[in-house]
Amino acid sequence: MFTYHCYGMAGAAVLNILTHLFTHWSIRFRAYASTAAIADIDDGECVLVVPVKFNGSTELVPLDRRIVKEGITETEELSFDFRRQRFVYDPSRHAFEKLRFPDKETFEFYGKASGHGSEAKQLAAFDRYGPNKVDVPLPAFSELLKEHLVAPFFVFQVFCVALWALDEYFYYSAFTLFMLVTFESTVVGQRLRNLKELRSLQTAKQPIFVYRSGKWELMPGESLLPGDVISIGRPTSDSSGSGGDQVVPADCLLLAGSCIAEEAVLTGESTPQWKSNIGDEVSSESAGRSRLSNKAHKHHILFGGTKILQHSGDKAARIRTPDGGCLAVVLRTGFETAQGRLMRTILFSTERVSANNAEAGLFIAFLLCFALAAAYYVLVHGLEDPTRSRFKLFLNCVMIVTSVIPPELPMELSLAVNASLLALAKKRVFCTEPFRIPFAGKVEVCCFDKTGTLTSDHLLLEGLVGDPEPRPPPPPAATPAGEEGGASSKSGKRVKFRDEPKELGKAKAGGDLDADELADPHLIKDPRRFGARATLVLAACHSLVQVMAQEDSKDKEKEKADKDKADKDKSGGGKEKDKEKDKERESEVVGDPLEKAALETTNWSFSGGSTGGGGGGSGVDMSFSPDRRVRATLLHRFHFSSHLKRMSAVLRVEDDTPGLLGASPYAYGDSPAPGAVPPGPAATGPQFVVVAKGAPEVIKGLLASVPSDYDAQYRRYAAEGARVIALAHKALSPDLDSTSVRALSREAVESELNFVGFAVFQCPLKPESEPALKELSQSAHQLLMITGDAPLTACYAAARVHIVTRPVLVLGHVEEDRGHAGGSAGAREPGTEPDAAFVWSSPDEAVQLPFSRVWDDMLKVASEYDLCVSGDALAHAAAVGAADKLIPLCQVFARVSPDQKELVVKTLRAHGAVTLMCGDGTNDVGGLKAAHVGVALLTASEGSKKKKKKDKEKEKEKPVVKKGQGTLKMEEWMRNNPGKPVTPQMERWAKMIDQMEGAAGPMDADLPMLKPGDASMASPFTAKATSVAPVTDIIKQGRCTLVTTVQMFKILGLTCLSTAYSLSVLYLQGVKLSDTQATVTGMLSAAQFLFISQAKPLEALGPVRPHPTIFNAYFFGSLLGQFGVHLALLIYFYRMALAAMPETDRLGSDSEFKPNLVNTVCYIVQAVVQMMTFAVNYVGHPFNSSLVENRGLFNSLRISAAFLFVVATEIVPDINNSIGMVPIPQNIKAQLITLCFAAFVGTWHLERLLRALFPAPIPPAKGYQVYAADVKRLQRAGVIRKKLE
């Protein structure tokens, strides 16, 4: 009775412990056990928060109640904090919603912003929004370790260790426990290092002027509140301690003035971004009532964490700033800023599971069936023996069931994912969501942006086409303005871009027409021959800004001292020249590479960087002709919009050319153009003109008259790969004044324009693009291009990178030729036009097919041609419900907006395709986030490139020899022991320690914490590279990780099945392992699992793909086949040893371990089975390094094989005696070696045979091939007559 009471008390204690632990493991259980659901929110005390998938786990958070004052009224506010975000209860909707910040108000509201007018309002705002901090708390080591030690798997592992200890396997239990605690301590240490690094990266909020209670105050950045009006700009000195850069402390909206900001830390965009004020929107009655949108109005918003490179204040602002900075209003603070959201992603997107949880659960359920059968067998046969210990019987049954979930499973999966993160980090690829790495191994469709991703963003202006007023050729003796009369590389060698066949996907019939295929009378390459008006558009219609370079104060002081010293030895003339050089060196023009290329080619110069559009900015943007006699002053700018696909500017042109009579040719051309305002009395003075540029099909709809060959000209060059920009010009009435000109609407400015030519830009492919995409194409990936560029240009580039491999058709608007599609006047709402308004046409328009949304018609076209869809056509297809069918059939998407990029990727995902998207992180953000695997290319900003170059130069000038710890210790000993000689042994030790430190140094930084600058908000993967080459690295690593995960499941499955048999049938017969045997086997197994996770991917991608899931014929066929061989081997040798062993040596199941023949033979067979499992199931080529190349695993298997051979042959009998073995009869020994080798050969060939018989499915290269059944149906019906690929 006492025994049963003890069992009852032990059971109650275990139940109590499990209940307590379940409150840690399951938040829902904690909620069920400690809380009750209530109907009235007023009675609530806590909230159960369930986040979306892959964004962390469910949490039970306390409900806060606070009194909120609004004027004289006081109300109670219910809220809770979750993952650094605050959610407030809305009584009208009876739901919690994220705390609303004043970031979606009307422009009229922001235009009247005057900050917090009283201390009461400040306190109310502080209570509501809290301090402006992005803090990362640093928990204690013990607290984190406790969190890990009560995790379900760890508790289960400790439980298994306790079971082995109860079965008297003390050494094995101690070794396993030590390994588990060490692993968890290492993980905790890594987490603490990551958190410390993340804390150290928080940029200190610099003091900033804040307008409160009607006066300016200098306040710390942490005290900013939403609604504050601030003065922000780049510091004029280094007092900020930020190296001359002002880090934006919060998300702000510019009210007056303008800024140039570097946003590479958030978006990956290396080009500085122009930030203009909201003056235009406030002054416009219709725009003033519209609400602020983060996406549409991002050019007005300064995002937290970005740097201000330059600013231009506005002295005429409604509230004048005290330090000449820009006037801005704070929109969001803390973790709601752009930088805060990125930090939150890094902190809380922490899923580390490398395999599908559902798959793992089903697989464990499959193994559990075998374990339960084995446990039932032991229980039934054990109860038949009344002398058997019930405790030992129960213990054995529990051990059988728990063997289904290997204690090392979470450790092995963590090792596999962490090894992948480490390998990617070494290749400068950083991942914020590690669970996506195995998705990269399953990728079927790869989508790429074009400009800046596949092609270089450093453009060259090749020349001008269609200029109505070209100038005569210059005298032969004159030095060309540009080498060889056009844009050239810095070395003077022309870079050709039309070096491919004109007909996409077809071979060229004839020979070369010209050596460089550019010699034609239509293309004017010499910029001195460009017409005056075309030159003015190229030189003055842009959004470029001039940034003044600033250096660290110490460097500036040193350079100034050196300069002053050098000036003493120079003459006055030399000083003047140096001043001019210094001025050029101190400033640089930054902005769109296309606009920079146009400005450089025309040889005009530029100065300024003001708002240029509303707000009355004090800065002035001016463009100057090479002789500086013609000056174009910017009065108003209408910025480029991806939706409108154009930009325009209003200029005041002053022409002081000697001998000029009448109007300036920059205003009216050689003769007034049709429709232009005739020269009036003031024509020789300053004249107002409009300059515009944009997509040819868009500008066409804004022209007063369209040349007859307009379409033919631009399409010819676009089809040959050029980026073609249409240029337009218009002279305004001389009766207007500057105020009237600034008040003109965009519609009035961009109407009745005069065409002045097409600018033809070269956009060369990056050298890595073609090899990378060729490798992807050959490795069974479907390739797509999604770009904002023109369809013909996109198709040409796609043909060069293996995306387009057949004749191509472009789906566009039939009225595009008449100037309607894209024009502001003729544009129609998507879906309001019939399908007949769109047509499939080839680049040369030789083939034209009507568009039909009928599935069979679309499939017929897709089966015969590669397809390109324009943004307008895609919008129409989406509006009429045909996009879902059209998108999977196309290869190129051109002239698409950022929202349409996201639509394309989401549609592909909805069709079941595992999708990868690669872009430069700006307009591609939607697509990058929507893809399974988003890869943002994060190129270094110009500022950081220059700083890095300067630092390298300094290092060369002043070499620093870094001494290791060994050398330092030896030198310290020499100082403390003067006169004593240094022995050779001491020198060798010092050198050895230095070498060890050097080898360990890089390892410390192998797996750095993700941080702003390494990762961007754009996507889960961020590659610090300028090309698409990292995409292949990510896919290789993804395949390697996927294969490693699947083979780990198979190895663990085979191990569990063997263990279940050993613990059931063999246990009943008294077969046991000694403590030493179990420890040796466990150590070898742990080492082999470690080495499997260290497998490296191959350098080349192959067409063979890994199985995306474990539920397939190959996996289970291999698993059950190998288990059958292992089981037969165990049964055969068990029976053979049992027959040869004397009856007196037999042991009962409850007996203590005692060496005998059965134990000896079964131990060797079980160890051989374990070794075979690792050797046979290691996949190797074509996904990762082979077994021989994985030196760690190969050597550990060789050591295991050698050890088992020595033990089986009894070459060294002392080894056998030390681990509890007895001599083996010669006949058993011979069969043991022979049959074990035969089993290895058999399972090896079985595994390879099943891999060959059941390969992973290979996705088709083209979208239409997915619908093979429909294609065959159309072929049988005679609809498709061509023989398909």
TrEMBL record:
Record's compositionally biased regions (Basic and acidic residues): 497-511, 551-598
Transmembrane segments: 149-166, 172-189, 360-379, 1113-1137
Compositional bias (Low complexity): 479-490
Gene3D superfamilies: Calcium-transporting ATPase, cytoplasmic domain N, Calcium-transporting ATPase, cytoplasmic transduction domain A, HAD superfamily/HAD-like
GO biological process: intracellular calcium ion homeostasis; transmembrane transport
Domain P-type ATPase A: 210-345
Region spans: Disordered: 463-514, 549-624, 942-965
Family: Belongs to the cation transport ATPase (P-type) (TC 3.A.3) family. Type V subfamily.
Protein name in the entry: P-type ATPase A domain-containing protein
Species of origin: Chlamydomonas reinhardtii (Chlamydomonas smithii)
